Amino acid sequence: MLNKILILTGGPVKKLEAFVKPADELGLNVTLASFYDLEFENKKDSNEFKLTVQGKDLVNFDLIYIRMVGKRLEDATMVVNYAKDKKIKIVDKAYEDSLFIPSTISKAMEMKKLIEAGIPLPETYFGSLYLIKEKVAKILGFPFVLKSTSGKKARDAWLVDDNETLDFLVSQLREREKMGDRFFGQKLIKATQRIRALVVGEKVIGAITRPTKWRKSYTKGMVADVEAKKGALIPVAQKYSDIAIKASNAADLDVAGIDILEEDKTGKLYVIEANAAPSWNLIKKDCGIDVEKEILKYITPGVW
């Protein structure tokens, strides 16, 4: 039985406050903390290493759930390494791997896992901006979507219609590339709706639909554009549940937001995101689901 649970985030602890009420309702001993709360010290003539959070050695917890890493990769690495050494259960499964940078942080590694598992992705080209400029138009054709691997999602994606636009974006992004950012191109899937499915364990607990960002570039005057919808998918179609669960398993995620596109003409499904730290506020609102309670119930199976 998992009695003592630590939930960590890369930002302020207030981001975790929604876990307080369901934890009380379920009678769980849950500690909420930030990576900023981590400490260790080297004492004179001692080779003992203790990693603490809010003054507690992590060995005092039965399970650690990392809600969000953000930019705190060094801190997360310490926590995961310590948890593995001390046999502390950790969520997500991805942290059990010994990758230098886990796929929860690296979009490139995420795509590698999905590709190798046979999950349908849009046609993709990954390379330096120089290689993207030279090759991507021939490989993918116009229009395509240029994205960063930084995890900023829709805020770091651009529609590329022609060589002039591509040249401009490459010139604008070169400084970021020099600082370590990487980019890739993906074929534009003509889908007017994007589905976000929230997977907890082996179950999709809720899903919503939203209009896609660039639908108007190819639906001008079409009925499909007028009928763009926002709302919950109740019930969640089996085809969405199936591909979402397959994608989360492929990415070694226990809790995941899976973004799916359904091509308007063919009905073919594509996964464009397997997010280990999804925002679920809209799913809570539209679907009427207490997401935090569902996660707590999932990570404490011996209690129920």
From TrEMBL:
<dbReference type="InterPro" id="IPR013651">
    <property type="entry name" value="ATP-grasp_RimK-type"/>
</dbReference>
<dbReference type="Pfam" id="PF08443">
    <property type="entry name" value="RimK"/>
</dbReference>
<protein>
    <recommendedName>
        <fullName>ATP-grasp domain-containing protein</fullName>
    </recommendedName>
</protein>
<keyword id="KW-0067">ATP-binding</keyword>
<dbReference type="InterPro" id="IPR011761">
    <property type="entry name" value="ATP-grasp"/>
</dbReference>
<dbReference type="GO" id="GO:0009432">
    <property type="term" value="P:SOS response"/>
</dbReference>
<dbReference type="GO" id="GO:0046872">
    <property type="term" value="F:metal ion binding"/>
</dbReference>
<dbReference type="GO" id="GO:0005524">
    <property type="term" value="F:ATP binding"/>
</dbReference>
<dbReference type="GO" id="GO:0005737">
    <property type="term" value="C:cytoplasm"/>
</dbReference>
<dbReference type="GO" id="GO:0018169">
    <property type="term" value="F:ribosomal S6-glutamic acid ligase activity"/>
</dbReference>
<feature type="domain" description="ATP-grasp">
    <location>
        <begin position="111"/>
        <end position="300"/>
    </location>
</feature>
<keyword id="KW-0547">Nucleotide-binding</keyword>
